[in-house]
Specification:
The structure holds three protein chains of three kinds.
Chain A lengths: L7 H6 L4 H4 L9 E6 L8 H10 L25 E8 L20 E8 L7 H5 L5 E3 L5 E3 L10 H4 L21 H5 L5 H5 L5 E5 H17 L6 E3 L12 E5 L19 H25 L4
Parallel strand pairs in A: 1-8
Antiparallel strand pairs in A: 1-6, 2-3, 4-5, 7-8
Chain B lengths: L3 H9 L4 H8 L3 H9 L11 H6 L15 E2 L5 H14 L5
Chain C lengths: L7 H7 L13 H5 L9 E6 L8 E7 L2 E7 L12 H4 L1 H6 L8 E3 L7 E2 L2 H18 L1 E5 L2 E6 L2 E4 L6 H13 L5 E2 L1 H5 L1 H11 L16 E5 L3 H4 L1 H12 L3 E6 L11 E4 L5 H15 L4 H7 L22 E2 L4 E2 L20 H4 L30 H9 L4 H8 L3 H13 L7 E5 L1 H4 L4 H14 L10 E3 L8 H4 L6 E2 L3 E2 L9 H8 L9 H13 L23 H9 L5 E5 L3 H4 L3 H9 L3 E6 L4 H8 L1 H4 L11 E6 L8 E4 L4 E5 L12 H16 L8 H4 L7 E2 L4 E2 L1 H9 L1 E2 L17 E2 L34 E2 L27 E4 L4 E4 L77 E2 L21 E6 L15 H4 L6 E4 L1 H7 L6 E5 L4 E8 L6 E3 L2 E3 L1 E5 L20 E2 L11 E7 L7 H12 L11
Parallel strand pairs in C: 8-9, 8-19, 10-11, 10-15, 11-12, 15-16, 19-20, 20-21, 32-38, 33-35
Antiparallel strand pairs in C: 1-2, 2-3, 4-5, 4-21, 6-7, 13-14, 17-18, 22-23, 23-28, 24-25, 26-27, 29-30, 31-39, 32-40, 34-35, 34-40, 36-37
Helix pairs in contact in C: 5-27, 6-27, 6-29, 8-18, 11-15, 11-16, 11-18, 22-24
Classes of the chains: A alpha+beta, B mainly alpha, C alpha/beta.
């Protein structure tokens, strides 16, 4: 079953450490990513470092013309994806002088590295029938490639659209938060490479504190648009293990504004099924009792 | 695996990250990460005060995750060769 | 107790994971998962092979093969981070794209053939020996030259210092002077500009020091894309409250992180910087005490000097030769030789058999100073008059920068300079690659001197160089005009001995005053026991120059059929050099070509599938050039050093063997030299003495006889007669008792320790990281740091303290190694007749300069004027509003039907090329693409060649986003995908709208991602001091649609030429 809003399990689970709740005794602190897009320089070191570490194949020499984004989105062969958004609005007090001969309030170029969110309430984990997708002792969500049978149930389950199946082997692949590296205390490849420390790795609790401080600083510096995304344990997925600082609405970056774990309503649906089945059964019994020939 | 409290307890007893890790059955780098919140080979730049309060090592910590490092800075055979060159090229008088 | 059953279901039931979502379903594989880094046999310390930031790399080796490459977190300068290219190093070096076998193309051959390595080497030896013999020149117009003009070499900034050293040593011994590399086409202007202003032509500071800047001005630089890991220090500064300004024609990823972006017209930075200089002078905002004590502001210039009036010409101009006689620019009653740049200027003009000032008996004199700065001919007044016309109105008119924005920039400079605050410039090739490139750097230097930012923390001029070891390939130069350590290559003069050479070319005061010691030590390193006091230390063995032999001069000689053999060492001129067509034309006239690289770059395959084959102009079967392709070893397969952009020399260790025929350049050059010497052994021909007498006995190791790079570095670093390794260049002697292959690297192997391999972690030292590797000179990290203290030796402020005088202990001390004699007190004043370092006073921070001062005005060293002056680029649609001379009167041009120039802006036909192209780099690719277009992880990030245009230009020309466009100049036509973006903005120039087009230059026809090369459009028009090409701004036409194929391509070029009325003389007036 799932960790939902209405189930009794959820009362327990809300605020609980996912690793502990998923059966790990003596679990280490939950680890995650805080991606501060306000310092991202759009270099895509994260994309390359991830591919090199995980030996992911190159997945398409196609010019998309989407500003400098030729990766397109997350997928089985792109576990980090840098988005580029050019907008005719200023950011903070930055002065760009680009509005010389056009009607615009200003200009800004938003750059952001996207990744699997390692949700607290992970729908992919909920629906995986084989036990391939599992919660690690670090609180991360990982696809065990030796088990995944490529059924694809997880693909539509993810509210962020992170998952799809690889054309090469039919299985699902995604960010593991470098589970193998964490095991020996090494930093995930993308976070290690990031030249400006936009991708920060550490205990989730600490990252959330740091992020709150950073938003405050930006607000004081005249960047009121700065906000956190995926940081809130009360949101529809129970907060993300990989959360972000954005400079605009999530939709601008291609992120869902209010993601909800897609298995949230399952218990309620099953209860209705149970009620309906019960009613049907009762009705059938009633018919059988009433409709007996005399 | 281990909790932060478990590793800290061993550090308090005077263990190093290497021996604490061995005792708990986890790699020393993981023990380091659990306590400090920092990866042993991280590219972040915490302030020196922050490092100390986290129980990070004063200098480098990447040896906790790496195999032995190869970085020799001396080579006796080259110095011998230099001696030969100097004797031939310079000692004969200028 | 944790459940341990193999059955997940049992674990689920028995353990704490009842839902079967975590511990219970962890597979055996997951439980045993370990990263390959932890399971490797060893980790080898190395350095990234891409750009000049020189990020430290950890290379993990398992079973003798490299399995992972990532950043080294202990490095002070990179902190474990890597950009996308550095992150792709594993794929670059261990992926499938690298060739493993020698390939050979016979004359007129249509295909490559395999050939074994030994045979190929022997064939190359044959050709070198034969071609040299046939093309050897003993004299030119009665003067001894002793050189071979028939062979040339290009490359390489991607090579180790030890490799460049052997290339220069062997080829010089063979009499070859046409030796060049990427440093020529990249930052040669920096060497001239910084060298003449301050005394050394390298970056004065390090990226890590930018964290202390209060204002950072990035100009002529796309630092966030070209040097992402160094950019972290700009972000640090920002986090501490610094202001970041980006000035550029093109809004890039760097601009996105700047507080202020200033779009300007490409090619107008001198007008912009001149405007700021004018502002500082007019408002008295200079750091007066610094200016008076540390610059030549008070120095009086001789009466003959004629300032640049309305025509824009200084005194001494010869319109026939399009060059200057700089004699009249000199100081009054004193002759100053420059520390860098053109140092044989007087001789080069053929001023008799001996240049002026050669006679040491003639007093070089002492400069006359006016500390009141009122003398009409003092530098201060000359500077004021020169920049008086660079008003805010003029800046707006010429550069397209609104006056309010310009005022803001000026305000920022002034408020962030002085005792308490410092400003840094960061620049790249956006400044250097112009026909006035050296003067761009000079202009920035002047401003930094006026504001007192040189030698101070958070100040300086941070020259961001491009390749892993391009600083090294400038220092240990595979360049024609310098010997190791920036000793000028001697020119051909009558009866010039070593003493005469030193007298003519060396400043006699300052540390260049010891040039004899540096030169003799070099000659001893190269010719050992054959170099004696009796034979002038074999000075006669050095081939002499007659004129410029820059790479572009060489290309012209190739086109004329005078160069028969050519070596390319990791350089790709068919894509990376200006006028790609001329590059290929030159190669098509060669007898033989040797290409060493990872993959089959365009410079190796032009005979098979280059544009001239595609168009049908040439037929492969009719091309005679014999081509040898030797696959090169990667940096993980070699021991050696790279010198990064902050002068830091880092050793990288060999981690694995190369495959097949792949060899290092060290191996190639050493064995080439060995075989040539064996072939010539016993020769009695005097021509062969220099190569036979070379010291060429390096120890070799292993099954392939790899030379020991440690030995080469030791030779570079230097030793004394007792075989003790020297510690610093002050130990070098003129009497032949010391040997040193490059005096500025003296000390790299001090105490028998490979200082370049030191790896003290960042956390154990201060921000300068002085115990990580080794920097030249003498491990000083911030140059001219004496200037961080006042004349009495106290820091100008506590906040900006760097080094200071410790009176109690009688020495200089501080955070950095003092760039000054450690025990020379501030109060020291030199005696009248002092020479060399003794002539440097205790308050002269610029110790390489002849007068110990920073040069606001350059009396020597810069060929086109003592002060930067705005001229329009060679191809420009805009009239020069500052002077009558449209273009640099002293620029260097080449006449050839394939190198035509565009009309003057007011001539008929000028409107044929109404737009401006500015070239730039993308972070995903690397220079001419040899290390990125074949690398899948990089190729997929930027898979197509595109151009960037504003929505306004797109509307005007009917260009569609995602569609195609054709760009045309008088040299060529290319096509590119179109990106319409707000980031390209139209500018108002001189009352009308001017459009700029951004064009990245990484593409060529070969590799995984292919496209036309931008350099099909560019021309060979050079800066006269640095010989660098102008590729940062050219005029162009752009039309929607793809370009013609086949013969139609050149037909279109000719059509454009006709429409614009272009002839051989177009654009060539002085």
């Amino acid at each position: 079953m799932s960790t939902t809003d209405s189930g009794p399990l959820n009362v327990l689970l809300r605020g609980g450490d996912p690793a502990t709740l998923d059966g790990y005794e003596d679990a280490p602190p939950r680890m995650g990513f805080f991606t501060d897009t306000s310092v991202c320089i759009g270099c895509k070191a994260c994309e390359v470092a991830c591919k090199e570490w995980n030996q992911i194949p190159e997945d398409g020499l196609e010019w998309l013309g989407r500003s400098h984004d030729n990766t397109g989105g997350l997928g089985a062969d792109s576990w980090r994806h840098v988005a580029f958004v050019e907008q005719r609005v200023p950011v903070g007090e930055q002065d760009t002088n680009l509005e010389v001969s056009r009607d615009a309030e200003g200009f800004r170029w938003l750059m952001a590295s996207d990744v699997c969110k390692h949700c607290t309430h992970a729908a992919c984990l909920d629906v995986c029938p084989t036990g391939s997708i599992f919660r690690t002792e670090f609180g991360t969500v990982v696809v065990q490639e030796d088990i995944c049978n490529g059924c694809g149930y997880c693909v539509p389950a993810c509210p962020y659209g992170v998952l799809n199946r690889s054309e090469a082997d039919g299985a699902v692949h995604k960010c593991t938060l470098c589970y193998d590296r964490l095991g020996v205390g090494q930093e995930p490849a993308c976070a290690k490479a990031c030249p400006t420390d936009s991708i920060q790795f550490g205990p989730l609790e600490e990252l959330r504190e740091r992020a709150a401080g950073r938003v405050e600083l930006l607000h004081e510096a005249g960047v009121p648009e700065a906000r956190l995304y995926g940081h809130d344990p009360d949101d529809g997925v129970g907060g993300d293990g990989a959360f972000f600082l954005l400079l605009d609405e999530p939709e601008v970056y291609g992120l869902p504004p209010d993601p909800v774990v897609t298995t949230r309503d399952l218990p309620a649906m099953w209860r209705r099924v149970a009620v309906a089945s019960g009613a049907l059964l009762a009705g059938a019994v009633a018919c059988a009792a009433v409709g007996r020939p005399s | 695996m281990a909790t932060r409290a478990q590793v800290n307890a061993l550090l308090d007893q005077g263990h190093s990250y290497e021996t604490a890790g061995r005792t708990l059955g986890i790699p020393p780098g993981q023990a380091f990460m659990i306590v400090t919140g920092l990866p042993a080979d991280g590219s972040d730049a915490p302030a020196p005060e922050d490092l100390a309060s986290r129980r990070a090592l004063p200098g480098s910590s990447q040896h906790l995750v790496n195999p032995p490092a190869m970085n020799p800075t001396r080579k006796a055979s080259v110095m011998a060769w230099v001696q030969g060159r100097a004797a031939r090229d310079l000692k004969g008088g200028s | 107790m944790a459940p341990s059953s193999r059955w997940a279901l049992l674990r689920q039931l028995q353990g704490g994971d009842h839902l079967g979502r975590g511990a219970a379903v962890k597979s055996a594989r997951s439980k045993q998962l370990r990263p390959r880094t932890a399971d490797a046999d060893m980790v080898v310390k190395s350095v990234c092979p891409y750009c000049a930031v020189g990020c430290a790399q950890n290379v993990y080796v398992k079973d003798e093969r490299v399995v992972q490459i990532e950043g080294d977190p202990d490095a002070p300068h990179s902190r474990g981070r890597l950009c996308p290219k550095g992150s792709a190093t594993l794929q670059l070096t261990t992926g499938d794209a690298r060739e493993q076998h020698v390939l050979y193309r016979r004359p007129y051959g249509t295909e490559w053939e395999r050939m074994d390595l030994e045979t190929a080497m022997d064939m190359v030896v044959d050709r070198v020996v034969r071609t040299r013999r046939e093309g050897f020149e003993w004299e030119h117009e009665g003067k001894r030259t002793r050189r071979c003009n028939a062979i040339a070499a290009l490359g390489g900034a991607t090579l180790d210092n030890e490799e460049n050293y052997l290339i220069k040593k062997l080829f010089t011994g063979l009499g070859i002077t046409q030796i060049e590399n990427q440093a020529r086409v990249c930052h040669s202007s920096t060497v001239v500009g910084l060298g003449t202003s301050f005394g050394r032509g390298a970056s004065s500071t390090l990226p890590g020091d930018l964290q202390h800047s209060d204002l950072i001005v990035l100009e002529g630089s796309n630092m966030a894309e070209a040097h992402p890991v160094a950019f972290q220090w700009v972000m640090e500064a920002k986090a501490r409250g610094a202001t970041v300004v980006h000035v550029d024609p093109h809004y890039s990823r760097t601009s996105a992180l700047a507080d202020l972006f200033v779009p300007l017209r490409a090619g107008t930075d001198i007008a912009f910087l001149g405007g700021i200089i004018n502002h500082v002078l007019q408002t008295g905002s200079d750091f007066r005490e610094y200016v008076l004590a540390y610059t030549n502001a008070p120095t009086i210039i001789r009466e003959e000097f004629g300032e640049a009036g309305a025509d824009g010409l200084f005194s001494g101009y010869d319109p026939e030769k399009m060059s200057y006689d700089p004699t009249s620019w000199q100081y009054e009653d004193a002759f100053m030789a420059a520390a860098s740049g053109q140092r044989d200027q007087l001789s080069a003009m053929g001023a008799g058999g001996r240049g002026a000032g050669q006679d040491r008996d003639e007093a070089r004199g002492r400069p006359k100073l006016d500390p009141t700065l009122e003398h009409p001919r003092c530098v201060w007044q000359i500077l004021k008059r020169h920049y008086a016309s660079y008003t805010p109105e003029m800046v707006e008119r010429v550069c397209g920068i609104p006056q309010s924005t310009f005022a803001e920039v000026c305000r920022l400079f002034v408020e962030n300079s002085g005792r308490e605050r410092t400003t840094a410039f960061v620049h790249g090739v956006g400044w250097t690659q112009h026909t006035t490139g050296s003067q761009y750097i000079r202009a920035a230097s002047i401003l930094q001197l006026l504001l007192g930012n040189m030698g101070r923390p958070g100040g300086g001029v941070m020259a961001m160089r491009g390749h892993a070891s391009i600083q090294g390939s400038s220092d240990i130069p595979t360049l024609f005009d310098t010997l190791p350590g920036y000793i000028p290559t001697p020119h051909a003069h009558q009866h010039e001995d070593l003493d005469a050479f030193i007298a003519a070319d060396a400043p006699d005061k300052g540390f260049w005053g010891n040039m004899r010691a540096y030169t003799v030590s070099l000659l001893k390193a190269w010719w050992g026991e054959a170099a004696t006091a009796e034979n002038d230390f074999a000075f006669d063995y050095l081939p002499r120059l007659v004129r410029s032999q820059s790479t572009y001069d060489t290309v012209m000689e190739q086109v004329k059929g005078l160069v028969k053999g050519y070596f390319l060492f990791g350089q790709n001129p068919a894509v990376g050099s200006a006028n790609a067509r001329m590059q290929r034309l030159g190669m098509s006239k060669l007898d033989w070509l040797v290409v060493r690289d990872f993959s089959l770059i365009e410079s190796a395959t032009w005979w098979k599938d280059g544009p001239e084959i595609e168009s049908g102009e040439w037929r492969t079967e009719e091309l005679a050039t014999e081509v040898f392709f030797f696959p090169a070893a990667a940096h993980i397969e070699k021991n050696g050093t790279f010198t990064n952009t902050q002068r830091m020399v880092q050793w990288h260790h060999k981690a694995q063997d190369s495959r097949g025929d792949q060899r290092s350049e060290l191996w190639f050059m050493y064995h080439l030299g060995r075989k040539i010497r064996e072939r010539l052994a016993g020769s009695t021909d005097a021509m062969d003495r220099p190569v036979l007498d070379l010291t060429w006995d390096y120890p070799v190791e292993g099954p392939i006889d790899e030379p020991d790079a440690h030995a080469v570095l030791a030779e570079i670093s230097g030793w004394n007669a007792d075989g003790e390794m020297l510690s610093t260049y002050t130990e070098l002697k003129s009497d032949g008792s010391t040997s040193c292959g490059c005096w500025v690297y003296c000390g790299a192997y001090a105490d028998g320790v490979n200082q370049t391999a030191r790896r003290t972690p960042a956390r154990e030292q201060n921000w300068l990281g002085s115990e990580w590797a080794w920097a030249w000179p003498a491990n000083r990290r911030i140059l001219y740091n004496r200037a961080s203290a006042d004349p009495e030796g106290r820091p100008w402020s506590e906040r900006k303290a760097l080094v200071w005088w410790d009176a109690e202990n009688g020495k200089w001390t501080g955070h950095d190694v003092p760039d000054f004699e450690a025990d020379k007190p501030p109060s020291y004043r030199p005696p009248e007749d002092a020479t060399g370092p003794d002539a440097i006073a205790g308050d002269d921070p610029f110790i390489m300069q002849a007068d110990g001062r920073g040069w606001l005005y350059a009396p020597a060293g810069v060929a086109d004027g003592p002060l930067p002056t705005h001229y329009e680029p060679q191809d420009s649609p805009v009239v020069n509003r500052l002077y009558e001379h449209q273009r640099n009167p002293a620029r260097q041009l080449f006449e050839h039907p394939d190198n035509r120039f565009h009309p003057d802006p007011q001539a008929p036909g000028a409107d044929v090329f109404p737009f401006i192209v500015t070239t730039y780099r993308l972070t995903e690719h690397f220079t001419a693409g040899g290390m990125s277009r074949w690398t899948p992880y990089l190729a997929e990030l930027q898979p197509e060649f595109f151009c960037e245009v504003s929505p306004e230009l797109a509307a005007e020309r009917g260009l569609e986003h995602g569609g195609w466009a054709t760009m045309a100049t008088a040299r060529g036509v290319i096509e590119a995908r179109v990106m319409v973006t707000d980031r390209m903005t139209p500018l108002r120039i001189d009352g009308r709208v001017v459009h700029q087009i951004g064009v990245p230059y990484h593409w060529g026809a070969n590799g995984l991602t292919t496209g036309d090369s931008m350099n099909e459009l560019s021309a060979m028009a050079l800066d006269p001091s640095s010989h660098i090409q102008e590729v940062k701004t050219l005029s162009v036409d752009i039309q929607p649609g793809r370009r013609p194929r086949g013969a139609g391509r050149q037909a279109l070029v000719r059509e454009y030429q006709q429409r614009a009325g272009i002839t051989a003389t177009t654009g060539t007036t002085p």
